[in-house]
Amino acid sequence: MNKVRFFLNQWACRVAGLPVLGLLVLLLASCEEPSDVGSELVVDTTTGTLFVDTLTVRTSTVLVDSVVTSTSSYLLLGQYQDNRLGTITARSYLRLGLGGTTFEPDVSAVYDSVVLLLPTDTYRYGDTTKVQHLAVHRLREPLRPNTKYYAFNTVGYNATPLVTQAFRARPNLTTLRVPLPASLGRELLTAGISRQLSSDDALEARLPGFCLSPGATDNAAILRFLATSTSATLRLYYHLPTATDEALSRDFTIADGSRHFYQLQADRSSTLLSSLTASRQAIASTRTAAEAYIQGGLGLQTKIEVPYLLDLNNLGGTWVLNSAQLQLETVQGTEKGAFAPATLVLQLADRGNHSGSYLTDLNGATLTAAYSYAYSSRTNLEQGSYSFSLTPYYEAALKREVANEGLLLSSTSPDTPERAILGGTANVTNPIKLRVYLTRVQ
Question: Origin, by domain of life (predicted)?
Answer without folding.
Answer: Bacteria
